[in-house]
Amino acid sequence: MDTTAVRSADKDFWNRRAKSFPRYSPDPSGHEVGLLQLARGLGVDFRGKTVLDVGCGAGLYTIRLAKEGKFVTGLDVSDEVLSINSLDAQREKLDNVEYVNSDWLAFKPDRVYDLLFCSMTPALHSHGGRLKLLEFPKAQVVYVDLAAPPKNRILSELIDEGAIKPKPLKSTPELKAFLDKRDLAYRTAQKPGRWDKRLTKDEFKLSLSGFIAFWGEPTREIDLDAFAERFSDGLGQYLESTEYVSEIVVWENP
Fold this sequence. Notes:
By secondary structure, the chain is an alpha/beta fold. The protein has a single domain, classed as Vaccinia Virus protein VP39 (Rossmann fold, 3-Layer(aba) Sandwich). It is built from 9 helices and 10 strands. Strands 1, 2, 3, 4, 5, 6, 8 and 10 form an 8-stranded mixed beta sheet that branches. Strands 7-9 form a two-stranded antiparallel sheet. The two termini are 32 Å apart.
């Protein structure tokens, strides 16, 4: 397999979706705030820590981690999301964040980290990606992903119409099985959530293309314009909603 080509394709995919990513907000009622609080209840103390935010995206967690931690490295394969992340960090007047534009498997750290934070990161769905998490001795790992398949109308209708063959969900149950095989003790907690987005038609079509690429294997072409109209509010906005259950898994590397 040409891994360079795979990494380039991943980068292009996430760069195309960057503008539709949710961005950091100081809203104290946000889902991310609740998940970090659950992590604290599992014995995680972010204060004064050096943190590697793996697959940091647009900064939903990066900025919060930097406000508590000593130093944060935001790692992502997409330079577009790193630009968004950096801009919001500057707005928050943070000077303890650095950004590394790299594929996870190609990443070579130049410092020691107290804590690895990983949220909804496809790079960690592979066996090799998970093994690399264990290469950071004595680090505490906070892993956030889905506990079960999400409920999403777009996904459901694509499957019902036979437009995609859904991929097996890479989720926390699989991660916990990975840890069990290595006799690594862990602690967990779950939190339900809902994501509602109102998009323009072009944004919705871009998100729809991303859904097809990420959640399934296309079995036939669909008319994106016609499909999008099913989700129109009649006022030029298109609704995308997802119900999900997030799960945090925390462990300490030997």
